[in-house]
Amino acid sequence: RHYRLNGLRTESQRALRNLITAGPLVNRPSSSVVDSIPKFEGRVDEDVRGFIDHIDRVAISEGWTDAHRLQVGIRRLVKTALLWHVQTGHMHGDWAI
Fold it and tell me: Which domain of life is it from (predicted)?
């Protein structure tokens, strides 16, 4: 019985050590969450700040990294906005406005 408890304790300690050394968990954007974000066309009457804020709110609630935020933002670009990204936007590390 004593041996069994020591074995369980050692196993628990090993599992805890593995969790600690594994590093943080990163939530990858799910397709359904990404699809829930409105597409951005780049029209003059569209609110770019609102688009970015929407992505930021979702990113915070989903636990995304900054790289995920940028990736999702790019995936939601269409028409003029996508053309801008292909020609110019890809050269920027962020979308500071």
Answer: Eukaryota
Q: Which residue has the higher pLDDT, 67 or 8?
A: 67
Name the domain count of the chain.
1
- Would 61 be classed as within a structural domain? yes
> Which domain, by its residues, includes 82?
26-91
Asked if the model's pLDDT at residue 25 lies above 70, the reply is no
The verdict on residue 3 lying in a domain is no
Q: Which two tokens stand for residue 67?
A: 């790289």
Inter-residue contact 67 to 28 (CB < 8 Å):
no
- Give the DSSP H/E element, type plus range, for residue 43: none
Regarding predicted confidence, which is higher, 74 or 95?
Answer: 74
Predicted confidence band of residue 91 (pLDDT cuts 50, 70, 90): confident
